[in-house]
Amino acid sequence: MTPITPTPALVTQRAVQRLPRPALLLFCAGYVLPGVFGRDPWRNADQAAFGYMLAMAEGRTSWLAPTVGGLPLENALLPHWLGAGAIALLSPWVEAPLAARLPFAALLALVLVLTWYATFQLARTEAAQPVAFAFGGEADPVGYARAMADGALLALIATLGLLQLGHETTPELVQLFAASLALWALAAAPFRHWRARIVALVALPLLAASGAPTMALLFGVAGTVIAARSTYSEGRAFAAWIGTATLAAVLVAWLGATWGWRVGLEASTAQALKLSRLFLWFLWPAWLLALWTLWRWRHHLARRHVSVPLALALVSLVACVAGGGFDRALMVGLPAFAVLAAFALPTLKRSATSAIDWFSVFAFSISAIAIWVIYAAMVTGAPAKTAANIAKLAPGFEGRFAALPFAVAVMATLAWLALVRWRTGRHQQALWKSLVLPAGGVALAWLLLTTLWLPLLDYARSNRPWVARIAPHVPAGACVAAPGYPRSAVASLEQYGRWRVEAQPDVPSRCTVRLQQVRRGEGLAASAGWEIVARVRRPTDRDEATVILRRER
């Protein structure tokens, strides 16, 4: 099983020192935990998913055919059962938004773990090993695999697209977990025979049951082909198991009626520019390193350490493009992109690593300074111009000092400065060193945003302030008609207002209160039998307003 062509990796034993485990755990905790505590569900997908979970947990709708405001669930049931079960189990000791978020935070942590172990298994294969030196001194296989796995984990944390979407309570996070399981099963098939087979039988049906049956089918087909062509006998035996898992996924999708097609591709320049922008920022910096991997390992594309992550990454790219730039499909492939990025590390030149380091230091340091300056303006009113801009963008918001978030933010900033000082030292040989600053910078920015800026983000992205403006004009317990409103808005009306909402379009309603959206500059004349009570806006929305109408008696 000796590679036909020498590998491009030149790695010494000194370069495979592992990232200290306390530091690695702090990286992961600093990435996963911020955004879990102390915030409302944010608008759109996060709020809509939570609305169905809360309705099921409180017994306001069926668990088999849930509705919010009369609108049926459009996504898969399984992820919503996960959040609803957590709410029901932890209530009343834990607030519902936090209870729903906890299992999804655990899934994100498991995605990080699975990415690490998948890379470790792929880097152990003979074709992935670095070149043996004439007089020894090359990296040992286990140390090399461990260093590569550390690099893949850092690459995943550094990827910008995972930040917000990875901290939501949406079905796509379950899909991401299932895809990570499939990635690990394919990677570990030659070494962890029965565990890999069992995990594959779970991963693909889980992916189908969580709302991505087409991706499960494509993952399964690609995995079956890769396994059948494996140079490992155990890998070839795995082909039957991954094929069986694919059939099971198809059966689960058929029984659960989760088949659906999200096709929005348009052959236009505008669409091409949209997709290009999405790829550039969503996959940063993994796409850059992944392309370098494909170039430097171009003679080894059929080897499993490249073919496995490449196949899964391509499936997510195809799903994203077919969906007209559906970023949540692209998120499912992020672990595969991170693995590809890791295999660029043994081939990078010193000039490339220096460019990554200095770009990261500059970009994330400037971002941290901006976050701190805006926070100072929120709390103290200085700088005055910045405070005036905040008041203009978020009218009615009042910033307050909170000791615990401030202390956490200070410690995170000091940790970033220490990390920069460590990385800019002259004697750092570790293979994963190039990704320390990108990962640390992303974790720092996310932690500062979810501590210093969390009240402002909640004010701008939560629907609670909007419902609070409606509440004085609507009696408690009233029936509210809201035809045409998105599911996230309807869920917010039920959650915060505790009204009975009817949101089905073109369905006559007997509610005494009706809400209607109007665009900026549009007038609204009350139809016969209705009188206009008030006109309110979301605090940070200048384009739309909500007109509250009451039925005339």
Structural commentary:
The chain is mainly alpha-helical and 553 residues long. The chain is globular, with a radius of gyration of 26 Å. Strands 4-3-5-7-6 form a five-stranded mixed beta sheet, with helices on one face. It has three domains: 13-34 and 75-347, no CATH class; 350-461, no CATH class; 464-551, no CATH class. Helix 22 links the parallel strand 3 and strand 4 (500-502). The protein has helices at residues 21-32, 45-57, 77-90, 96-124, 141-158, 162-165, 171-188, 193-209, 213-228, 233-256, 269-282, 286-296, 304-322, 327-332, 334-342, 350-380, 384-393, 403-423, 436-449, 454-461, 464-470, 487-497; strands at residues 67-68, 71-72, 479-481, 500-502, 513-519, 530-536, 544-551.
